Amino acid sequence: RAFVARIARELSLKGWTRNLKDGTVEVVVDGDISEFKKKIFVQGNPDSDYGLHVEELSEEKVEEKLPDSFEIRF
Asked: By CB atoms within 10 Å of each CB, which of 5, 19, 60, 64 scores lowest?
């Protein structure tokens, strides 16, 4: 979550992230996510130093009011 939050904050995106019980990370983000997705996949390469492995990224619209910044939820 911290890695995702750092990238989102660097790009001034709004939203949140949290770990799910099955070990996946859920991210809800508002803004231009094209650069966000690039950074997640490049830095999420299994050979990178970040210890992150991205297998899949799915997108869907949500009607939720998002925070004014990007936060980590527990």
From this structure: 60
